Amino acid sequence: MANVKVYDMAGKEVGSMELSDSVFGVEVNKTVLHQAVVAYLANQRQGTQSALTRAEVSGGGAKPWRQKGTGRARQGSTRAPQWTHGGVAFAPKPRCYRVVLNKKVKRLALKSALSSKVVDNSLFVLNSAELDAIKTKKVVSLLEGLGLGGQKTLIVTNGVNRNLVLSARNLPGVKTAVVENLNVYDILKYDNFVVVQDAAQKIEEVYA
């Protein structure tokens, strides 16, 4: 089992925690990580892009000029793609970009992402993340205490922590999330993974 340090809100070490090898100690599988990221990004697409083809643009019913004898290239419609105000060739139409991964691949990808943070020494555990009030300075102080000031950081809690969310939302490069909403893309996107101790235990319970 991986043994990681536990910090308080001041960034001071207050203990240690054993992380389960079944979740935080698996072999990093880059193939499933890639599949998970591709699926996540594809599923964010609305698929509402649309343009008109030559058949859908109004006008263009009359032949611009006679077929032969003018010296110009033959044309059948002023709404052909090569004309100004013409339709679009191979116009995009609304479609679904959804990519479905099976559950085993999803779980393995998430475990690989979490394990990669342990390998890179970029996983930090907090004993608590409770704030008395909405204060951005307190989150800044926490990150600086951990040596993460100015770095892209994902903070994960067990359940919605309103004061923490509102305190961190104005910091560029800092995002908060709950265990239920964890995804591979966010874990890999942010350089550091800061997780509250009870959230880490819940991750182990859910994905073990």
In short:
With 208 residues, the protein is α/β, with parallel strands linked by helices. It is built from 7 helices and 6 strands; from the N terminus they run E-E-H-H-H-E-H-E-H-E-H-E-H. It is elongated and about 90 Å long.
Key terms for this structure?
ribonucleoprotein, 6 strands, elongated, six-stranded mixed beta sheet, Ribosomal_uL4, alpha/beta, 2 domains, Ribosomal Protein L4, Chain: A, 7 helices, RNA-binding, 33% helix, 208 residues, rRNA-binding
Going across the biggest sheet, name each strand in turn: 2-1-3-6-4-5
Mean pLDDT, rounded to whole units? 94
| Count of the separate structural domains | 2
- Low-confidence sequence ranges: none
Organism: Feifania hominis
InterPro entries: Ribosomal_uL4, Ribosomal_uL4-like, Ribosomal_uL4_dom_sf
GO molecular function, one term: rRNA binding
Subunit structure: Part of the 50S ribosomal subunit.
Task: Walk me through this protein's architecture.
Part of the 50S ribosomal subunit. Keywords: Ribonucleoprotein, Ribosomal protein, RNA-binding, rRNA-binding. Residues 55-85 are annotated as: Disordered. GO terms for molecular function: rRNA binding; structural constituent of ribosome. It holds the Pfam family Ribosomal_L4. This protein is α/β, with parallel strands linked by helices and 208 residues long. It folds into 2 domains: 2-45 and 102-207, Ribosomal protein L4/L1 (Ribosomal Protein L4, Chain: A, 3-Layer(aba) Sandwich), CATH 3.40.1370.10; 47-96, no CATH class. Helix content is 33%, strand content 15%. The chain contains 7 helices and 6 strands, in the order E-E-H-H-H-E-H-E-H-E-H-E-H. It has helices spanning 21-24, 30-43, 103-119, 136-145, 162-168, 184-189, 197-207, and strands spanning 2-7, 13-19, 123-126, 153-157, 174-178, 192-196. The protein has a 6-stranded mixed sheet with strand order 2-1-3-6-4-5, sandwiched between helices. A hairpin with a 5-residue loop joins strand 1 and strand 2 (13-19). Helix 2 packs across helix 3 and helix 4 crosses helix 5 (162-168). The chain is elongated.
